[in-house]
């Protein structure tokens, strides 16, 4: 199976969200899980997703959501 993280908000909260905060949140949760499951197994079976659909967001907000997802994906690969 796979773990879909739903890590990037798609509510109005995206307007004030910062990438560094999301990175810290993701790495913290990854660290918590890796105490019970090997980290390489987690990362191989992870999908970074928005928390919900982005269809109700403005174009600017949707771009921010997917830009954050791209950056977080690069963080997971490190």
Automatic annotation (TrEMBL):
This is Cobalamin-independent methionine synthase MetE C-terminal/archaeal domain-containing protein. It comes from hydrothermal vent metagenome.
